[in-house]
Specification:
Elements: H1 4-14, E1 38-42, E2 45-48, E3 53-56, H2 59-62, H3 71-81, H4 92-104, E4 110-114, H5 117-132, E5 136-140, H6 172-175, E6 178-181, H7 186-196, E7 200-205, H8 221-232, E8 235-239, H9 251-256, E9 262-265, E10 276-280, H10 282-285, H11 304-317, H12 322-343, E11 347-351, E12 354-358, H13 367-371, H14 375-387, E13 390-391, E14 400-401, H15 408-419
Parallel strand pairs: 3-13, 5-6, 5-7, 7-8, 8-9
Antiparallel strand pairs: 1-2, 2-3, 4-10, 9-10, 11-12, 12-14
The structure holds pyridoxal-5'-phosphate.
Length: about 425
């Protein structure tokens, strides 16, 4: 595979952009590669600046459930652009998307749009603190809620009460009110609520984590979080930035039958543009400025082009049978893949149309277990797949995605590549 233009593009980018990338994983360092530079994308196919083609199982981190460059979405975008690209004044597409969000995710009685998942999670946490007049936030190891200072805590030690930032530049004072606990384990949660329940503003969780690789929740874990938060007057925030419109039209909360107080959405929501949202109970959302005293704002929030792309995307996935069809394709693919992978000592975790191949024979249901998977083998696998024209999410602990644009030949090729991997 010739990658002359990509190498040149990388050298040039390095002169102006730290690490040559605008988001660190794209550098492909952890898989021992150099970054791709993409010229165009259509359906499930990426074409790079050297003309190489890759079947895309990352899909801009799950954004493109319809595949890249969907004709109807593009048409909606072009129409929006022709009317101007931002006003800083309300416009109709904002209400149209809010209405659709509310229809799909009924717990989001009121919705506010922002420009990134980071902003959505940060704002939901601020609102939860403002509403409860409490400060403590509980999250789970391996869950990612964007890069706001106070949410960048993994507490890798897994010891309750021990807050340790995952990044330099985050003062301890800013993470002192964040506690990270092991996912899928109710015991430490119960203990923390017993000891400090009156201080806890909110529990924030990815209801089906995808940022430590896909780790399905145990049956009663999320329902337990719902019960315990309610009992102690804390809020439950489901971070559905990845799972929203991915696992079902109503997200993970619909599948799990859990109604959170607040929800965050992103990725699919913006139809390929920088848009995200937080929303939930009307009495809580009423605390936001201008009606309430919890401040939150954004120059490009509710951007009409992004809203129009989101509206069109949600209209398409709302068609009857959309998820049933995606699920049928996914089930068929995954049941075959699971067996082929197991023969190679690889564990398949999946939920709906998202999946991770963990290089371990053990089951993976926590961050600690995910970390035991072999990184070097994953790196070798990533490079092998790339050389064969398949682009995976470039980290052993990330999710991969199917879209309605993936074809049967693409999927059977994936299976045979895994079969031939050694
Ligand atoms: C991607 C993601 C975020 C962050 O969203 P950005 O748009 O990258 O800021 C937050 N939470 C979850 C669960 C995510 O997957």
């Amino acid at each position: 595979m010739k990658r002359v233009n990509a190498a040149k593009a990388y050298r040039e980018a390095l002169r102006y952009i730290p690490g040559g990338v605008n988001s660190p994983v794209r550098a492909l360092k952890s898989v021992g590669e150099q970054p791709l530079f993409i010229r165009k994308a259509k359906g499930a196919t990426l074409t790079d600046v050297d003309g190489n083609r890759f079947t895309d199982f990352c899909l801009s981190w799950g954004v493109f459930i319809l595949g890249h460059s969907h004709p109807s979405v593009n048409q909606a975008i072009r129409k929006a652009v022709s009317n101007g690209t931002s006003y800083g004044i309300p416009s109709l597409p904002e209400t149209a998307l809010a209405r659709l969000v509310n229809r799909h995710v009924p717990s989001m009685e009121r919705v506010r749009f922002v420009s990134s998942g980071t902003e959505a999670a940060m704002s939901a946490v601020r609102l939860a603190r403002g509403f409860t007049r409490r400060n403590l936030i509980v999250k789970f190891d391996g869950c990612y809620h964007g890069h706001a200072d106070h949410l960048l805590v993994s507490a890798g030690s897994g010891v309750a009460g021990l807050s340790r930032a995952s990044s330099a530049g985050v003062p301890e004072a800013l993470t002192a009110c964040t506690v990270s606990l092991p996912f899928n384990d109710a015991v430490p949660v119960a203990r923390l609520f017993r000891e400090r329940g009156e201080e806890i503003a909110a529990v924030i969780v990815e209801p089906a984590p995808a940022n430590m690789g896909v780790v399905p929740p145990d049956d009663d874990f999320i329902p337990y979080l719902r019960r315990v938060t309610r009992q102690f007057g804390a809020l439950l925030i489901l971070d559905e930035v990845i799972t929203g419109f991915r696992l079902s039209a109503g997200g993970a909360q619909q599948l799990l039958g859990v109604r959170p107080d607040l929800t965050t959405l992103g990725k699919i929501l913006g139809g390929g543009f920088p848009a995200a949202a937080f929303g939930g109970r009307q009495d809580i959302m009423a605390l936001l400025a201008p009606d309430g005293d919890v401040y939150q704002a954004g120059t490009l929030s509710g951007n009409p082009v992004a809203m129009s792309a989101g509206v069109k995307t949600l209209q398409i996935i709302n068609r009857s049978g959309y998820y049933a069809k995606l699920e049928e394709k996914s089930s068929r693919f995954f049941s075959e893949l699971a067996g082929v992978a197991a023969d190679k000592g690889i564990r398949l975790n999946r939920m709906g149309s998202m999946f991770t191949l963990f290089f371990t024979r053990e089951r993976v249901r926590t961050f600690a277990e995910a970390q035991k998977a072999d990184r070097d083998s994953f790196g070798r696998f990533f490079r092998y797949m790339l050389a064969n024209g398949v682009y995976l999410s470039p980290s052993p602990m990330e999710a991969n995605f199917l879209s309605s644009a993936h074809t049967e030949p693409m999927l059977s090729r994936f299976i045979s590549l895994v079969k031939n991997f050694s």
